[in-house]
Amino acid sequence: MGAFQLVHDIDEFAGMLGRALNLNYNRHMPSESLLKAASQRIPALASRKDIAHLMHVARRYAHQSVMTLTPPEDRRMVGLCPTCERELWCTDTEIAGQWIVCRCGETLKVTDVQEQHLLTCALAENENTQGTASAVSKLLLANGIKVRRQTIAQWKNRGILVPCGWDSGKPVYRVWAVWKCIVRNS
Fold this sequence. Notes:
The chain is of the alpha+beta class. The chain is about 55% helix and about 15% strand.
């Protein structure tokens, strides 16, 4: 779910660098070309007053790229810290403990972070916001939320969860609707 947002953020960052350096480009130019052109003008970037901020953003995106492409095997990304906007990666034990502490010092309830993350994804309305029971189960598991495919199917049979559509004869569910079923008794 975070990869789509990361690509979008890097595209925005590349465009911002292009404008800051007065590069001759159009909005259809690939971000890779803009970033390459910006890297060839490092002295001009270094003389800017906001270089510390630019470096911070570049490091953050580089770190997020590494974590997205090669995530730690024992951790899951559960969402973003509302204070510093860092990605919060937790072990299953930390998730079960229900509370996490961000590097900025903020103490957060895991379910609140997960809910905010899922709400953001649901509002984005991309292809990851819905899927079959199996697909939604796998997607939620990648974000530290355990719900079995059979449980989702039982919620449908009991009338707790209503499919938003059908794909090859299988019901399709919105991630947000499944989340609301998970936390309905909390």
